[in-house]
Amino acid sequence: MGKLIIVPTPIGNLEDITFRAVRVLKEADLVLAEDTRVSRKLLFHFDVHTPLKAFHMHNEHHFSLVLAKELLEENKTFALVSDAGTPGISDPAYLLVKACLEQGVEVECLPGPTAFVPALVKSGLPSSSFCFEGFLPQKKGRATKLQSLEDETRTMVFYESPYRIIKALEQFIATFGEERKASISRELTKIYEETVNGTLFELLEYYKTHTLKGEFVIVIAGKN
Ligand code: SAM
Q: Rounded to two decimals, what is the model's pTM?
């Protein structure tokens, strides 16, 4: 029947890969990778020599059905990885998973690293109910999206590029008010990992004078 296995990979610290992920990557017929250069280094580190093929946002639209049919007809097992973390979480996977399910190909997803879970848990904000918003639209649709979240009562989780942290915090203050509690986690699992908790105003003041390098997750309390 063929099988697609989604394989999460470390978001910084290589020790976070699981034994099972390494075994699955070794046993697969093919590893589909967002960036084959990035994944080749990772696979080499874990002594995995499975062939790689590129699967990314620029080819996933036409390639997903082709791959799903190949899995089905040739009874193969493909592993899907992204550059870091869990494929399908702000990374390609959805279209391929959908195509596989439609073709009757089994889909498995290994548990593993993803940035939003440690950021949410370290925020100290309610984690019993939350919404993952990923990246806000960069231009068109950004204001509308923010507006739609004005009355959100669940904790909200955003991914943001270091180049837009200040702008994003200013926009969050305009939407939620400067006293809203929030948390920013930077460089999770890496040497310079840092989590700063405070109000949106305090976080804006902090990041105006501190480093904006690395990868960021922003967690914001819901409306009371
Ligand atoms: N698939 C990934 C996951 O499971 O979290 C997310 C990939 S998305 C393209 C990249 C974004 O994830 C970054 O811009 C940042 O917001 C977040 N991210 C990834 N690694 C991170 C890390 N080590 N620390 C903080 N945020 C991280």
A: 0.97
